Structure formats: structure tokens, C-alpha cells
């Protein structure tokens, strides 16, 4: 039985759901889930949680992401990417240089407001936006504040047939739409635009160079080495605040006990979690501050340790 986080190099042309369904068959397990949707046209890092690791999905989706994208300026589309129908066209006639672009990228760095695209899975009144979009219905979308931690120009500027293209790298918070960011870049330059290419290179601490393709996964499976390629729960949560406890306390933790809150965690928010490890280095549980009992902590998730 496989357990841990499997880093998939998601190919273009598949939904994240398709990837999970395929891996469910390959690994012969139902207990599997991904940690953040990638559109079918997008490739890159897609962490897949298997077995007990499905309990930590929500804690991995909140991590920051890094992408490498290309924006094409000169026309916009219904989906804000290359797969959509053209909405507006305007040939790039004025001179746009590197200095102009760097200035726009700088202006979009930090805390900014985004409106999710109509072709997205955000729900409004219990219905996904893309369902409205497919029916030709435009609805008011909730604005959201997202964080652009870093936004860099990656390539030279390419001009062809009234269009302008360039690549950029962005590190951003959960919930950022890179498609929409590409449109915003175009708007600031005075033109309609869309995202013409995207790859996710990092998801939290997980990097593209550590990911496996489906072919590599099948190869490792044949060699009985796939489990070794997976990231353990303890390893996946290594960036969380943590504490190590003795065996006596470990038994109480596995029974879901409410325990005294160590001083170093008293400044954390109520919803912030921290990992509790045993002396052997295994993560036993995730705890957080007790919402009503001051000075105590309660379990958010408990990982039952398999007996050897």
C-alpha cells in the first residue's frame, strides 16, 4: 500500500482530475487526491497525496506557487488563455520597451486585487463560474486580494504581426490566476492580452526537477522503487512550526488529547497548525491553539502510526 506525496509532472492536455483517476488505477488505491488544480493546458508540479497523506491536502494547497508564463499582447480571449475564442483585437502599434514592461511588472508586485475569470471553478450561488460561462451568462464575480511576491521578466520581447510576446516568472499566493495576471499586464500597457503558455515550476517546497512523469512512475513501479520516490508525511510538513515529544506524550497525542500549549506557539493565529513529532522523527499529528481554553492546544489531524 503506497503512502506519501507523489510529485507528478502533469502533462498538458489532462485535467488534474484525469491525473488522479489515472494514478488511482496505476497505484490500485482509492485514497488519493491532488493539492491544487492545474488547467488542462498547463503542465508542471502537481503534488498527489496517497494513503494517509490525503489528510494533509489542505495544508499543502495553502503554500505559495511559482510559475513561468508567456503573455501575448494584441488580443484577448474568452478564457484568458490560448484555448479561448477571440474577444477583442488591437494591433500593438506603439513602442513598448523593456523599461515599460519592468515598470508594469513592478506595479503588479505586492498585494493586488483580482477578479477571477468567468472560465474558472469559483462558485457563485452554488454554481461554478465556468457553468455560467458555457451558458453565455455573465455574473458578478467576487474580488479577491492576492499576493504577488516576485514578478520578473524572463525573456526578450518578441514582435510579430502586430502582436507582442514575452515570458515572465511569478511567485504568488494560493488563489492567484496567472491568466488574469497576463490580462492585467496587457491592460496596464494599453492593450488586450491573454496568457499563451504556462508551467508551474514550484508548489510550496516541491520543485519541478523532483517531479516524475507518468512514464517514470510506471518505470519505478516495475522496479519496486516507487515508494522510495514518494515524500513522507513528516517530510512534506517539514516547513510547518513543529515540536518533538517523548513516548509518554506521544500516546496521549495519538488518543487525541488536549495538551498544554508550549510558549513558542502562543503567538500563532487560532487557525495556524504546527506539527508534533515523536522521537523517531515521525509526524504523529497536527495541533492548533484551543479556540476557547487559553493555554491549551487541540488536535487538528491525527496520523495513526502503522504497526510494523
How is this structure best described in words?
By secondary structure, the chain is of the alpha+beta class. It folds into three domains: 4-63 and 205-233, Pseudouridine synthase (2-Layer Sandwich); 65-200, Pseudouridine synthase (2-Layer Sandwich); 240-302, Roll (Archaeosine Trna-guanine Transglycosylase, Chain: A, domain 4), CATH 2.30.130.10. 23% of the residues lie in helices and 33% in strands. The chain is built from nine helices and 19 strands. Strands 1, 2, 3, 4, 7, 10, 11, 12, 13 and 14 form a ten-stranded mixed beta sheet that branches. The protein has a five-stranded mixed beta sheet with strand order 15-17-18-19-16, with helices on one face. Strands 5-6 form a two-stranded antiparallel ribbon. A hairpin with an 8-residue loop joins strand 5 (75-77) and strand 6 (86-89). It starts with a strand and ends in a 6-residue tail after the last strand.
Amino acid at each position: 500500500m503506497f503512502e506519501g506525496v507523489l510529485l507528478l509532472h502533469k502533462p498538458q492536455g489532462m485535467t488534474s482530475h484525469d491525473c488522479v483517476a489515472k494514478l488511482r488505477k496505476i497505484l490500485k488505491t482509492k485514497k488519493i487526491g491532488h493539492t491544487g488544480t492545474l488547467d488542462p493546458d498547463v503542465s508542471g508540479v502537481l503534488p498527489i497525496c496517497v494513503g494517509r497523506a490525503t489528510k494533509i491536502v489542505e495544508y499543502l494547497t495553502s503554500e505559495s506557487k511559482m510559475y513561468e508564463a508567456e503573455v501575448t499582447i494584441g488580443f484577448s480571449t474568452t478564457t484568458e488563455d490560448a484555448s479561448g475564442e477571440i474577444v477583442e483585437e488591437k494591433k500593438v502599434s506603439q513602442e513598448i520597451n523593456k523599461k515599460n514592461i519592468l515598470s508594469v511588472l513592478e506595479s503588479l508586485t505586492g498585494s493586488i486585487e483580482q477578479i477571477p475569470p468567468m472560465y474558472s471553478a469559483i462558485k457563485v450561488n452554488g454554481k461554478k463560474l465556468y457553468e455560467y460561462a458555457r451558458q453565455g451568462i455573465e455574473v458578478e464575480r467576487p474580488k479577491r486580494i492576492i499576493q504577488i511576491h516576485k514578478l520578473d521578466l524572463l525573456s526578450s520581447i518578441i514582435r510579430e504581426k502586430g502582436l507582442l510576446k514575452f515570458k515572465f516568472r511569478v511567485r504568488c499566493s494560493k488563489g492567484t490566476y496567472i491568466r488574469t495576471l497576463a490580462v492585467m499586464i496587457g491592460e496596464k500597457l494599453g492593450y488586450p492580452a491573454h496568457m499563451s503558455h504556462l508551467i508551474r515550476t514550484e508548489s510550496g517546497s516541491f520543485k519541478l526537477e523532483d517531479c516524475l512523469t507518468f512514464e517514470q512512475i510506471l518505470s519505478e513501479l516495475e522496479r519496486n522503487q516507487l515508494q522510495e520516490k514518494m515524500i513522507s508525511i513528516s517530510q512534506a510538513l517539514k516547513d510547518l512550526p513543529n515540536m518533538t515529544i517523548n513516548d509518554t506524550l506521544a500516546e496521549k497525542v495519538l488518543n487525541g488529547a488536549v495538551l498544554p500549549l508550549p510558549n513558542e506557539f502562543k503567538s500563532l493565529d487560532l487557525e495556524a497548525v504546527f506539527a508534533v513529532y515523536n522521537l523517531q522523527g515521525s509526524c504523529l499529528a497536527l495541533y492548533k491553539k484551543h479556540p476557547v481554553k487559553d493555554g491549551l492546544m487541540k488536535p487538528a489531524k491525527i496520523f495513526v502510526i502503522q504497526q510494523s
